[in-house]
Structures
1.
Amino acid sequence: MTDTTDFEAKRDIADIAVERYKQGRLTRRGFIAAMGALGILPALGSKVSAQAKEIVVVNWGGTAKDVLEEVLAETYTAETGIPVVIDGSGPSAGKIRAMVESGAVVWDLCDSGAGSAIILEQQGVTQPIDYSIVDKSKVLEGTAYNNGVGNYIYSYVLATNPKMLGGNVPQNWADVWNTKDFPGMRTFRKSVRGMLESATMAQGIAPEEVYAVLDTEDGIAAAIAKFRELRENIIVWGSGSDSQNLFLQEEVAIGNIWSTRAHLLKDQMDEGSFQVTFNGGVMAPGIWVVPKDNPAGTEEVMKFIAHAQKPELQVKWLELLGSGPINPAAASMVPAELEKWNPTSPENLATQILYNDEWYAKHQIAAEEMYVDALIN
Amino acid sequence: MGRLNEKVSYWMLVAPALTIMIVFYILPVLGIWEIAFTEPTTGVDNFVKMAESSAVKTSFVLTFRVAAITTVGCLLLGYIVAYSISNFANKFTPLMLALVILPFWVSVLIRSFSWIVLLGRSGLVNDTLRDAGIIESPLRLMHNEFGVLIAMIHVMLPFAILPMMTNMRGISDAYVKAARGLGASEWTAFWNVYFPQTIPGVMSGALLVFVLSLGFYVTPALLGGGRVLMISEYITYQIQEFLNWGLGSALSVGLLIATALVLLIASRFINLRSALLERK
């Protein structure tokens, strides 16, 4: 099973566009041009109206669409008789906004991100989650927003190839920066997302302190300096499939990659040549958002979200896609061989931090520029 | 009357191509220029930001360095090939010509991926060297500037060979024979008599390769490992990753101006008209 859709990255792009638009750094024309260039706008209006009494759930396509169909849609229809349609066209924040503002809403529920959820709420184009139907205790702490609620987790994790390293494997980010004991190439994302956190922890800073340290200019500069120091050993990954390829072709022995890609790699690589630790990982949640005036009505959608919270369904999701259950109760139902690959198992939760969207809203643009400079200059 | 007709038919012939160029090239380019000066605010903010950014400066330097080395590499290798085809390989000329042109039939993307297969850590080259016992651990042949240069020289080589060959085929061998007859050594005859006549071909090959290399995207992106960030990739990065159309457009304007400057400087030393237009 290979998921070639890099839905996270695509979501990132749209997120950033919306942020930019919000901050007034991109004009309305530029915003629309950008959305058009990303192939997002033309899809609008392709479906004129969804039938009442059906729920349209939108995600980012690829294998994830099929999995959602099998795991969530079919089970819900079997239970309630209400048909669920999965649309894989990518519910970027810009598209959701454009749809609500145009008054022709055809989507009921969208797989979005925390950054988008916050912005969409501020723009007043999403509905509050009804926490009398959706159970707040069934999502990871910190992923229940007013107008959005967690639906799965993917983490930035430390992946290694023990065979290439002769069995001597880095256990934490400080080890990753130790090129003497752990020689070889490393891969990091071509963006600071999830990366500055690891460089900060590599300085011996406790995970829970990371964003506090990064909130200072010195903290960012120190993290950037760590990359400057390591750069001769760095190959950069642009998309999720890039990171997967670098491990498959044994170009790198160590890397900071998405746990969803690691999930694929564990099956593709030879026994004993791929391993992941969630120690110092950064968990990024996927977030459900409900557009205003959705055709199926508020209550129907809330019931569907509650359905998706069922731990057994979330375990299925983990098995098929590698995205971690947002419901902590699911951990105990995860098959033993998958336990260590589950981003939200109790052991893994204890060593990770939650991706901080507020930090990114504030510092990302400046940090990205410094990051590129550190890598090439 | 006849003159007018001639003029009209001249424009009629040019019109279709010209229209396509104006509608699909000139207008969009002007649009890019406009974005560079208007987004996010009207003015030269983007260019100020560009001048202040050390990442942009590094990327510009890197772009020109890679383009320059590629050009030199292509000229050296290409000159030898063009010289052999034009002067020696009578029977094999069509075959050799075909071999020069053949790579054009395969897309740049595929050719770059082929280099990944060859140069990778467990690629053909490293595996062969290791099996032969020449190296212990794999050499770093790609994901750095070296890999980008190898692949770029490979991709650009025909662009250097073809103009030089066209030029060389127009050179009569009588001059070299005369020089030899008058007692010049083989090297003197080549260097003082033959080589100066090939300068226009060399220059047009050089310009072609250099200018094309400046805007090259696919090969550096695939073989550079993210650290050989040429301007064209940087533009993509700004626009795709950050939706920063203003800075992205400003960068492309900057690249265009820098390229024009190079041509301007080149025109002070060589006669561009004879190098590019009046090839024999």
2.
Amino acid sequence: MSALKAVLAGNPNSGKTTLFNLIAGTHYKVANYPGVTVEKKEAKVHYEGNEIILTDLPGTYSLTAYSLEEVVARDFITTTNPDIIVDVVDASNLERNLYLAVQLMELDKPLVLALNMIDMAEKRNIRVNAELLSEKLGVPVVKTIARDGVGKKDLLEGILKFKAEGRKFRISYGSDLDPALEEMEEIITENAFLTESYPARWTALKYLENDAEVMKKGEAFTDVHSRLSAIVERVEKHLKRTLDTYPETIIADYRYGYLKSVLKDVVKKENETERLYLSDKADRLLTNRVLGPVIMIAVLYGLYEFTFWASETPVGWLESFFGWLGGVADAALPEGLLKSLVISGIIDGVGGVLGFAPLILFMFFIIAILEDTGYMTRIAYMLDRVFRAFGLQGSSVVPYIVAGGIAGGCAIPGVMAARTIKGTKERLLTILTAPFMACGAKLPVYALLIAAFWPGSKGGLMLGITLASWLLALIMAKLLGMTIVKGDNSVFIMELPPYRIPTLKGLLFHAWEKTWMYVRKAGTFILAVSVILWALMTFPGMGEERAAYYEDLIAQVESTVTDEDAQAEAIAEIENLAAAEELRGSYAGMIGTSMEPVSKLAGFDWRTNIAVIAGIAAKEVVVSTLGTAYSLGEVDVEEFAPLSERLANDPDWSKATALALIVFTMMYAPCFVTMVVIVKETGSRKWGAFTLFGYTIIAFIAAAITYNIASLM
Amino acid sequence: MEVLLRNMKVNQKGKVTKINCEGEVCRRIRDIGISVGAEIFVTGRAPLYDPVALKVNDTVVTLRNSEADNIYVEVKG
């Protein structure tokens, strides 16, 4: 027997994902639906000798063409023709959950209802007569409590036993629409108009609902399309004149009317609308107009501190591990290009990325807690008014904070965290602006410049830079939203699901999934990038004559200086001079030097140019590269005192230069891994390229303006 | 008395009488379960008075005031 194709549909918060995990276990594939960034989970389930391929559709409330998820869900159903649709419904809110079921049934596909969270409903004194519901709707109904693992067997048996009856489901849409629907159905059937994909009545309904997707497909058949459109127009005019309403209003009212009549005897409620449950009482406090924001700030700050505290040790382990690995390579390989490639190119580059993995793991653990408890939606609710002013949504706050809104975050998980934002436009704007935040890798750059030019005011300036980053991100979001990021601001309407205690398994699972994606994506790209950067900074190498000159110098020191310490110091100094000369002569150095005429407008010389280019691999590299360029050897990002002294005493450097470099660092291209993640999350290379070139140009202009104004003062 | 949802106070209860508009906002309003005839109860308002949170069909949902402007509610008194 060939595998049975089943899909899992349902409202968000209906427990659909929990049910999927219950049935599929941990063996499933995560991919994207073709051409879009909507996640698709698929599992092969074996049950009593049968194979079922179960696909998790995105959670939706409806099947309109307004959101990507809905279009994806209905396209998947209509194009892959599953053998069965399992619709997961929340037993506490059947009316709304069945609103989707009605639309699924109108697609004339076999349906099984999973009546989920019945325990919760019973606690609320809502009793559902599952047999009667099954009888009235004409579909099998299986009771499940996915969280406790109840109902898995029944559901699998329901899927296997179900026999499609080829029954046509139809409800009446009243005397104004029914005749028009019939008329349209006839035209559609006669001409086999889109009938390979959709049932005739469904297409007719979608025309009445002004469904952009279906009508676009229909336009290809000019004749039928115009005949249908004419009927729709006639109905619209009639409704406007007689009832002052729209066809889609009538359709929705009739669907709800039908469900109200179905549920009349099925659901017995013994509660009142204004009855407050524990979760509602918690909300009285947690979203209180005064206390709510205070608690929110405390929660966000606390979680943030926890992330850094918890990840500090494993990050340290990984750093030591890669340090040790570098040491092993240093001892095992002969001096030369290969050694330099392995240590500076591969181990440093990959180690830099993997070193971040524990931090990312904990960040996503925290985000999973915020999401799984339901607190994330409350954050969105409380902050929406503020963020809306900049074209964003309340939920944008979390990506911002994770990216470095509290100085020290990381843009990579920040960009990935934007997935929780519902609106397409708001999500894109958040992704594009979160990298402006003061991430952990930018901090050493800021700290270096502050130590050099404003010693003593570190705390105040760091706070100022953090606030300036927020302002920059918000203003850029507003500007991008008004110019190049197209589309309407989306609708905010969302559910505030009851607070729940998340399961540890679920949290670990979410966190691991995201971290693994990061390691896989970032690991492969960063390897290529660090090798390219290494090559740029190494080749063509120093001429033999100059190399011999430095060797001679070292030999001289060795023969003349007898004190061991003094000798080592002198040799290190010569080697640093050689390294600086080599860097200047490298391709990167040539690029940096050739850009000087322009970069001088912002006060940057070739050294700064190379440093910021290298910073694209990872921002903290700016510090170490500056160190090499100033003949100080590799400067450790945490011990930059010699470099800051050097900058403070350099006649080429002034407060104006430092300020310009701070502004530039804040605004220019995000690090490479962030760009990779931006491309992945937006599904478009265009936005990755925009952050690379667009932001760098904007940053340079801002830096040049800063430099010139500051120089006057 | 019929009022706009925007003008309802916290802890006020009512019955939806009309949702009249076309396009995405109203579609979403209905999709989330706010239908004509539904009983609603305003459970809270965000710190800056907007958005509003309300209970419908035992579920708490939230929407912006600009979106609530399409919803007419019959309230007592």
